[in-house]
Amino acid sequence: MNKAQGEAVLKAAYKQLPITRNIIPPKRYDYEMTEHERTSETLFREGYNCAQAVFTAFCDVTGMDRETALRISSSFGGGMGRMREVCGAVSGMFMVAGMLYGYTDPKSPEKSRHYERVRELASQFRCENGSIVCRELLFASGEGATVGGDPSPRTREYYKKRPCVEYVKTCARILDEYISKNTILNDR
Questions:
Q1: Which residue has the higher pLDDT, 115 or 11?
Q2: What's the number of domains the chain is made of?
Q3: How far is residue 26's CA from residue 142's CA, in Å, rounded to a whole number?
Q4: If you ran DSSP here, which 8-state letter would residue 75 be given?
Q5: Cβ atoms within 10 A of the Cβ of 162, count?
Q6: Is 51 within 8 Å of 95 (Cβ atoms)?
Q7: Phi and psi angles of residue 133, each rounded to the nearest 5 degrees, phi first
Q8: What is the reported pLDDT for 188?
Q9: Do the domain assignments include residue 18?
Q10: Does a structural domain hold residue 115?
Q11: Is residue 17 part of a domain?
Q12: Scanning 31, 121, 160, 163, which has its CA 20 to 30 A from the CA of 107?
């Protein structure tokens, strides 16, 4: 299958999705951005991928050093290596949740609670944006969702068209809200 055929298949599949189309997350002017939102936006605009921007923005809370956070999250951008699967920003949000609330004992009752937590975070993002899947989010914003290839150059035009920076900030905000209401389980 060539690139054009792949995009045609994605577009046909997208038309079958039960999500609202052509929605770009609204810019919110009614509140002060959190430090994590500002940091995640800055990281994304510096050229880090969506997962790196979210995960690394929370190093102050997770206790992880910046270089390790950047390396661990580097594979999740573009919906996992530009495969356009789960949104990288959402994956970054889940990684932060794992660092703060995750389990290490596979027999622990915390395992099911943690999965429930991940579903709750996903649901919050999905309610605000219609999906947690990269290609669906890009199609909904009117952007194509090319699988594979090199990342798009980060130009002024890129930031005007792509909703990704808003998704990065949304994930940081959702995490900040969650953390403010839930005691961190894993002491860092």
A1: 115
A2: 1
A3: 15
A4: G
A5: 18
A6: yes
A7: -100, 125
A8: 42
A9: no
A10: yes
A11: no
A12: 121
Rounded CA-CA distance 12/17 in Å is 9
Give this prediction's pTM: 0.82
* Whole-number pLDDT of residue 68: 98
Residue pair 136/130 in contact by the 8 Å Cβ criterion = yes
Residue with tokens 């798009």: 152
Count CB-CB contacts under 10 A for residue 138.
24
Query: Residue 88 has which token pair?
Result: 């990288």
Task: Please tell me the chain's helix, strand, coil percentages from 3-state DSSP, rounded to the nearest 5.
Answer: 60, 0, 35
The number of beta carbons lying within 10 Å of the beta carbon of residue 72 is 17
Rounded to whole angstroms, the Cα distance separating 37 from 27 reads 13
Read off the tokens for 115.
């999965």
CA–CA gap between residue 108 and residue 104 (Å, rounded)? 8
- For the cut 80, the answer to whether the pLDDT of residue 106 exceeds it is yes
Expressed in angstroms, the distance from the first to the final Cα of the chain is 47
Amino acid present at 48: Y
Nearest to residue 50, comparing CAs of 81, 22, 27? 81
In a domain, 146, yes or no: yes
Average pLDDT over residues 142-170: 81
Amino acid at 92: G
112, 74 Cβ separation under 8 angstroms: no
